[in-house]
From TrEMBL:
It is found in: Cell membrane. The gene is gudP_3. This is D-glucarate permease. Its main location: membrane. PANTHER family: FI19708P1-RELATED, SOLUTE CARRIER FAMILY 17. Residues 10-399 form the Major facilitator superfamily (MFS) profile domain.
């Protein structure tokens, strides 16, 4: 473990990178209202744009995690930020549906290595007992972004337009990449650590064992389901509130700050709670959170008013925040550090495939049901139910878990 001051500096820098990555993704959910008008797109075409990023992001999760384990998390972190910043800036130059889809897909490829490499850095630099809280700080970036992006996007998109907004965010990415290059220094960057990582056959065997571990595939399913709910709501709620509830962009910006606050508080509290849960109780609490998520989704789309809708959205964010925090912490605590990059990459592939499939599916569903979102909400409720099963059937047995316990007690 690095000294506490160095750990905290790295955590702050990773947090800033996650904030920017979330800004780059979330801004599209609001910019797409202008893009749809400028490029004359249907709901199905809008869904394809929203999904194209996630296809590239999902494809890169497993390779990104493996590369972080094999060549070092810092290198993959830097490469990821540089590439995603380039394609964020290029998003502002898109001239057609096809060009936007290609650029957003490549943006997803660029950002794909960031999540597994940054998670591995947490595993390398923080003791087991502090990893839940460290991860909650990282994940809180999505809550902060969800809080500020409605108002920020309304201001930026009306003041400078969607094209210039993407260029500005690309420039901010270049600044983050410089800070990582200058200040993120890890034990894994020492020559002896690089040699050990490249030549240790035991660790290579562990990666093979990882692919045969049932827990990993439960994680893939659970990630897919909870992120289907998360990204289904995040990508389509602005459009839903305009088309089904009659709000304008400025009004959406203000009302969406309320669920944003809840998501932020939920992630912070979840990190603390997960670290305090007795071993074996994670599954029960996670399943309860998924069940309540499904209930709140039903109450959302049947809400008689905008105020009631926002109230239920605010509550559902608490439960989504808990599950999103719980799943990666299970990996960081139950698996040895040597394979956490690959493990996070595999699990997060499920989450990002959901990010690819769900917005596009909702677009087609809305078109098929003449603009109604009710069937889309039922689909999200079904995903919450499947997530319950995936969490409850997780098993913690085998060589990898023995290695993780040995690390924790060392």
């Amino acid at each position: 473990m690095l000294p506490k001051r160095e750990r905290n500096l790295i955590l702050i820098l990773l947090f800033l990178g996650w904030c920017l990555g979330n800004l780059d993704r979330y801004i599209m959910n609001y910019a797409v209202l202008q893009i749809t008008e400028d490029l004359n797109l249907s709901a199905s075409a809008t869904g394809i744009i929203l999904s194209s990023f996630f296809l590239g992001y999902a494809i890169m999760q497993m390779p990104g995690g493996w590369l972080a384990d094999r060549f070092g998390a810092r290198k993959i972190l830097l490469a990821s930020v540089i590439l995603w910043s380039i394609f964020t800036g290029l998003s502002g130059a898109a001239w057609s549906l096809a060009s936007m889809v290609v650029i957003r897909f490549l943006f997803g490829i660029g950002e794909g290595g960031f999540q597994p490499s940054s998670s591995k850095i947490i595993s390398n630099t923080f003791p087991v007992a502090e990893r839940g809280r460290a991860m909650s700080v990282m994940l809180s970036s999505s809550g902060i972004v969800a809080l500020i992006i409605p108002v920020l996007s309304a201001f930026l998109l009306t003041a400078i337009g969607w094209r210039t907004t993407f260029v500005v965010f690309g420039a901010l990415g270049a600044l983050i990449a410089f800070l990582y290059w200058k200040y993120v220094r890890l034990p894994e960057d020492r020559p002896e650590e690089k040699l050990a990582r490249a030549t240790n056959p035991a660790e290579k065997g562990l990666v093979g064992s990882l692919m045969k571990t049932p827990l990993i595939w439960n994680m893939v399913i659970a990630y897919f389901c909870i992120y289907a709910v998360n990204w289904g709501l995040a990508t389509w709620i602005p459009t839903y509130l305009v088309q089904s509830r009659g709000l304008d962009l400025i009004s959406i910006g203000w009302v969406q700050t309320i669920p944003g606050v809840t998501l932020l508080l939920g992630i912070f509290l979840s990190g603390y709670l997960v670290d305090k849960l007795p071993e074996g109780k994670e599954k029960i609490v996670g399943a309860i959170a998924c069940a309540l998520t499904g209930l709140m989704l039903y109450l959302m789309f049947t809400a008689p008013s905008v105020a009631a809708f926002i109230t239920y959205q605010t509550i559902v964010n608490l439960f989504i925040a808990f599950v999103i925090t719980l799943l990666p912490v299970i990996i960081l605590k139950q698996l040895p550090t040597s394979v956490t990059g690959t493990a996070m990459g595999i699990a997060n592939t499920g989450g990002q495939l959901a990010g690819f499939a769900t917005p596009m599916a909702i677009g087609f569903i809305v078109d098929a049901f003449d603009g109604s979102f009710n069937a889309a909400f039922w689909m999200l409720i079904a995903f919450a139910a499947i997530c319950i099963i995936a969490i409850l059937t997780m098993r913690n047995k085998g060589e990898l878990f023995d290695r993780a316990k040995a690390e924790a007690s060392a």
